Amino acid sequence: MLFNSIDFLIFLPVVFLLYWFACRGKKSKNFLIVIVSYIFYGWWDWRFLFLIALTSLFSFSSGLLTEKYSPHSKARKLVSAGNIAANLLILGLFKYYNFFADNLSSLASLFGIELDLVTLNIILPVGISFYTFQALSYTIDVYQGKIRATRDIVEFFAFISFFPQLVAGPIERATNLLPQFQTNRHFDDAKAADGMRQMLWGFFKKLVIADNCAAIVNLYWDSYDHLPGVMLIILGVLFTFQIYCDFSGYSDIAIGCARLFGINLKRNFNFPYFSRSIPEFWRRWHISLTTWFRDYIYFPLGGSRCSKIKIIRNVFIVWSISGLWHGANWTFVCWGLFHASLLAVYNLLNINTKHEHCAAYGRLLPNIKEASKMLLTFCLAVIGWIIFRAEDIHEAFSYLTSIVTHPFIDNTYIDGKKWLLAGIMLLIAEWFQREKQHALEFSDTGIFRYRPARWACYYLLVYLIINYAGASQSFIYFQF
After folding, report:
1. Using CA atoms, how far apart are residues 357 and 366, in angstroms rounded to an integer?
2. Which of 72, 226, 326, 355 is the catalytic position?
3. Whole-structure pTM value
């Protein structure tokens, strides 16, 4: 079920009323969450409910078995490793089998060997990477003794399948989300109201900015070789706005929706396009995934507590895996390696990227140094997103070189000025709210401390959504 669908607009209020008026205690609320989450996920294709149920059952059982054995015992390691392997096997089979089979056949053909590997005609289950990583974090945390294994199968299934963040995150940790299912929730009107505001901002970003940018990008991308360099830059910036508003819009809706049910999800975006370096950008973009890789892969490899050469090695390992996580395509791997190279440069040059506060903290405008750093970081992000959007490596290379080699082909222009301006206006609005959790979190100072000003803002956003929403587009990160 899509957030941007009539089905969800009917589904959400029905679930909300049942949750708060028909369910009294935590057990009944958790049971309802599991049922409606499976309906939400099965709305797309009910057959894949077996996969998420299998992942949940493996991880739940693994947690119980792991705690039966003493720390560092071989049996404890075997149980934990077995569950990790089982979950990765499911993920690999559905997401990566055809990719590796095709590439292995191509590699063998270079040596005159013909491999007739069978490929699978299967659909990639929506959100499988997200809920698999969530399940893996639980298994690892139980093994490391960070949390106790739950003995309530319903609350565990609710933790894995919680519908607001099920198919595109945030990727929750058991240390944050599971305890919330272990206690009773009480309705908080202030929390619910703030959740609705964040949902409204998320819907605006997705329906008005992302979907309209997507229409322009999809229309012109395939004919990029007929566009002048300036137009290619504009097209790249439009996709940069599209992917940000699409993904952060989903996160805003998910986080806001969860707050309606008394659940706090972790923040997933922190105004990343105001970053002053690529390392800061990745501390602000898809925070739940980058911290997952940091805690479960980067730190175990040694993190930053080793020599520079090993630090750079660790970065390249993490970002190769991160690129592959995004999809079974070499463009994603190249995108990961591109950012790994940038992070390596920052590390080698000992550039300070540890910023305690956001840019221009406590001030209206950034200074020249901050502004130039933000502009450079944004430009590097655009290059990365062009690689990310390309169908293959040849297209990515050709697109980027065409910007330089074909600055003026003819008088071909893309009809995207309006949405380019809209994206810029959105960034300006978020700039003024960059010290907040989201753009519609209003303080007790300024014009928005007055209720009429706040409601005027809400009505304006609703008006823009009704009148300027683009053609319905699936969320980009559903494919991951």
Report:
1. 12
2. 326
3. 0.92
